Amino acid sequence: MGKLILVRHGKSLWNVKNVFTGWTDIDLAPEGMEEARKAGELIKSNLIEIDLCFSSYLKRAIRTAWIILETAEMMHVDTRYSWKLNERHYGDWQGKNKDEVLKEVGEAFFLSVRRGYDTPPPSLSNTDKRNPEFDSNYKALDTSVLPLGESLKDTSKRVVNYFFEAIAPELAKGKTILIAAHGNSLRALIEYLEHISSDEIAKVEVATGVPHMYAFDDKLNITEHYPLR
Ligand SMILES: O=C(O)[C@@H](CO)OP(=O)(O)O
């Protein structure tokens, strides 16, 4: 079985401004680019040879993957992109300041959406200009798969589905795989891989720009996992 390296994109311009981002295609902040460079240096100094890379469709994850591969001198590595690795769709909260939303909706609802498992944020209406249907990046997809707001459970379905569809078969070939994705899409994958309960996943936070290595036995049970240093 191969190895998996999970990395959350470096800080984005909206992470810095404390704004809900979700599927909004916001780029890395300068400090996020620096975090990605450091992640690439760690891959290089740990003598890791990446065979295959995956990223979401969002530029903060894509740029993180590119900077890592460039810094690690592995720009030739085949990189595959999927919307199924995108951040959780944050519905009508996208573009809103997190502290202001907290004040508006109260702590209980805020936390049940933000770190709970099956509570979605308020949905976008079909006609909202933030509906991914109006984003040409998703024009090849059937509109019925495009979310207007997701719970972590919804995100988990598409992320785990993609893991088995595209990533696990490559791990089975013994490849070392880098996945550059997002706080919540990675929490969904980590919940599945580490068998974390839907209650416990509320406490899991994924740091920006820290590559986390996973090794497996031949049944895809984790044998070790640790952040690269
Ligand atoms: O805004 C978002 O899309 C996510 C990740 O930055 O936010 P949170 O960590 O609050 O789920």
From TrEMBL:
The record marks H182 as: Transition state stabilizer. It catalyses: (2R)-2-phosphoglycerate = (2R)-3-phosphoglycerate. The active site is at H9, E87. Substrate binds at residues 8-15, 21-22, 60, 87-90, 98, 114-115, 183-184. Pfam families: His_Phos_1 (PF00300). GO terms for biological process: gluconeogenesis; glycolytic process. Keywords: Gluconeogenesis, Glycolysis, Isomerase. SMART domains: PGAM. It is an enzyme of class 5 (isomerase). Pathway: Carbohydrate degradation; glycolysis; pyruvate from D-glyceraldehyde 3-phosphate: step 3/5. GO terms for molecular function: phosphoglycerate mutase activity. Belongs to the phosphoglycerate mutase family. BPG-dependent PGAM subfamily. PANTHER family: PHOSPHOGLYCERATE MUTASE. Catalyzes the interconversion of 2-phosphoglycerate and 3-phosphoglycerate. This is 2,3-bisphosphoglycerate-dependent phosphoglycerate mutase.
